[in-house]
């Protein structure tokens, strides 16, 4: 194919076959299995929200290898839709074990769920080994006629 045709071809496909901004293989129906994440250094942030309400659809150990946060917020309170996902919580352990440095990580669940409690109890020793702390919501905010759990984070 001549260079000018190749150039037009690649421009006409701009933005296609992307999942969360990452190029995918159009021959595959499973974006997760076909992600081609460019290699590069990890990204360090203070706070990261685990995507998609902690669903296993878009988050795997590679996410935690690449996005290194002091605090991860775990949302999700819908067991019927697999939120939060036990596989994502396990991926945090696997990804963090690859960091090569023992930075403190705090996991902040937004809801007290059975999945989170079971994961916490079953992996507590591994969490300690990897310097991961799970922050329990022990504070409550009261606004008008409503109250809800809350947590304060200082940087």
Automatic annotation (TrEMBL):
Residues 22-36 have a biased composition (Polar residues). Residues 1-37 are annotated as: Disordered. One of its GO terms (cellular component) is synapse. It comes from the Eukaryota. GO terms for biological process: axonogenesis; dendrite development; microtubule cytoskeleton organization; regulation of microtubule depolymerization. One of its GO terms (molecular function) is actin binding. PANTHER family: MICROTUBULE-ASSOCIATED PROTEIN, MICROTUBULE-ASSOCIATED PROTEIN 1A. This is MAP1A protein. The gene is Map1a.
